[in-house]
Amino acid sequence: MYSNKHNDTLYIMTYTLNSGIKGTVPLSNDQIRTWMDCYKDGSKFVTEIGKEFFGLNPELVADFKVHNKYSNYQETLSPVQPQSGMNELSDAYKKSEQILIKVECKCGTSYVTESPFKRTKWYCTKCNEIVFLDSKKGRVETSKGPAYLMTNKYYVERETTVS
Predict the structure, then answer these.
(1) What is the distance between the alpha carbons of residues 34 and 117, in angstroms, rounded to a whole number?
(2) What percentage of the chain reaches a pLDDT higher than 70?
(3) Is pTM, for the whole model, over 0.85?
């Protein structure tokens, strides 16, 4: 089944394949409904996320979880709506709006990356494990400049907000 709905708020779906490999994908509410239908009837799930296509065979998925507004680990991504006359942002503007993140993972990977906004969780690019923002440390110095530290090497107190 093919889904082409991507103008909604996106929620992170985490899945585990039968082989033990974990993955994540951002999906809209319509894409989540389509995934659920595919999972129930065993048909292959193919969808468009931005300018990329994503496919998943539900017969190879051992389990999955959608992190929505009722989840402990809520992370939503809202699409940027283009304004009239502003189809392309300048590289200088994009660069100035980037936030540096330093990832230190228990798998031994350590790197600095950029994000368009401050986050409370991220995924290690090597092992796909979740790393959390250490808000008590604040920003740490890196070769690219001050960056927010995200780690899973030790317990990080997560801020919770009640809405």
Answers:
(1) 29
(2) 73
(3) no
